[in-house]
Design a protein that fits this description.
Blueprint: E1 2-4, E2 22-23, E3 30-32, E4 72-77, E5 85-90, E6 93-99, E7 107-109, E8 119-126, E9 132-139, E10 147-148, E11 151-152, E12 156-160, E13 174-176, H1 178-181, E14 185-189, E15 194-198, E16 210-213, E17 215-217, E18 220-227, E19 231-237, E20 244-247, H2 248-258, E21 276-286, E22 289-299, E23 303-304, H3 306-309, E24 314-318, E25 323-327, H4 331-334
Parallel strand pairs: 6-13, 7-12, 19-23, 20-22
Antiparallel strand pairs: 1-22, 2-3, 3-21, 4-15, 5-6, 7-13, 8-9, 9-12, 10-11, 14-15, 14-24, 16-25, 17-18, 18-19, 20-23, 21-22, 24-25
């Protein structure tokens, strides 16, 4: 898990526990060959993003602002597996959706296309493997009663053939994306195993952990991170990705930072790719937090997924304020001075 360090806060990288990967003897150049790697084929619709720097502001004010009880909109069991599945209601029935901050648009699997309202337009978007994704926009009917918990979703939704996202996604009815989440605070409590969505208000964030500034690109949240060798990258914070991935041109630089003579040639990664090249990073810092080990794998785009988020006791996305709060697993550590 994460721990705290007492020196001045520094930008850093984030933690994954590479229990599913087979390491080479040098422990710096690994092949990610786990059955869990089937999850890395999740494709979402989103735009390319810009590099930014995370602003880490630790600590709380001595004089606290008045605190109001937030209005809870939805609360569900978080579960321990991947992906995070949430129940959505639509036309009087319940459907299985994937909770996905890496998806800018809430969408339905095309198996439900006949239940949608009028077709608005079609377009071709770019997926995380940089392949073309066919997407239709439909207007929801007034009596659709579509939403999650006490959140009602109206207007337009996407409809897409989920086989484009990888075979494992075909069993799900839809993706709950950032267009529906961006007005709320979303909290993932890994101690209580609860996912909460509530209104922003005057609640005190001091108990949420350490704040990090987010940047939005294509409607999805990103965090600027500095890697070894002075490599800067903007990682999408993606609840629909299992692990940590770095786009291949930067991955090559990272690998050569540790092994200047290592041979690496960027290659096309597809749904059929059964192994990824990875580099483990030891004792990496993100602000005042220290992560024992990170495994970062080659990919067409850069993501920080659920294995990183699960390294914390509490993760809170304050989307209206463009912040993410990370609370270490040890409460005593989370109260330590940075």
């Amino acid at each position: 898990g994460a721990s705290l360090d007492t020196p001045e806060p520094r930008l850093g990288f984030l933690n994954f526990s590479p229990t599913d990967f087979l390491e080479q003897p040098n422990n710096l150049f690994t092949k990610c060959k786990s059955a869990m790697l089937r999850y890395h084929h999740l494709i979402r619709v989103f735009s390319a993003f810009a590099i930014l720097t995370a602003a880490v502001n630790c600590g709380c004010r001595e004089e606290k602002k008045p605190v109001s009880k937030p209005q809870m909109r939805a609360e569900f069991e978080l579960g321990e597996g991947f992906p995070i599945e949430v129940p959505m209601h639509f036309k009087g029935s319940e459907y299985r959706f994937v909770f996905d901050t890496g998806c800018g648009l809430t969408s339905f699997n095309s198996i439900h296309k006949d239940m949608m309202g009028p077709h608005v337009r079609s377009e071709t978007a770019t997926g995380s493997l940089k392949q073309n994704i066919s997407l239709d926009y439909h207007e929801l009917e007034n009596d659709a009663n579509f939403g999650i918990g006490r959140i009602n979703i109206a207007g337009r939704v996407g409809v897409s053939d989920y086989s484009q996202f990888g075979q494992w996604m075909e069993e799900y009815d839809g993706l709950l994306g950032m267009d529906a989440l961006s007005h709320f605070i979303v909290q993932m409590d890994f101690i209580e195993g609860t996912l909460r969505i509530f209104d922003p208000g005057l609640q005190d964030p001091c108990d949420w952990g350490y704040p990090f500034e987010l940047h939005f690109s294509g409607g999805t949240p990103h965090l600027g991170v500095e890697l070894p060798g002075g490599i800067m990258e903007s990682f999408m914070i993606d609840t629909g990705a299992p692990r940590c991935y770095l786009k291949q041109d930067l991955f090559e630089k990272l690998l050569h930072h540790f092994r200047p003579n290592a041979e690496y040639t960027p290659r096309e990664i597809t749904h059929d790719t059964d192994s990824l090249t990875g580099v483990p990073l030891k004792d990496f810092h993100l602000g005042p937090m220290v992560y024992e080990e990170i495994l970062i794998c080659e990919y067409p785009r850069s993501f920080l997924g659920m294995e990183f988020l699960r390294k914390h006791a509490l993760v809170t996305f304050d989307f209206p304020d463009s912040k993410m709060y990370l609370k270490p697993l040890d409460d005593s550590e989370s109260a330590a001075e940075p």
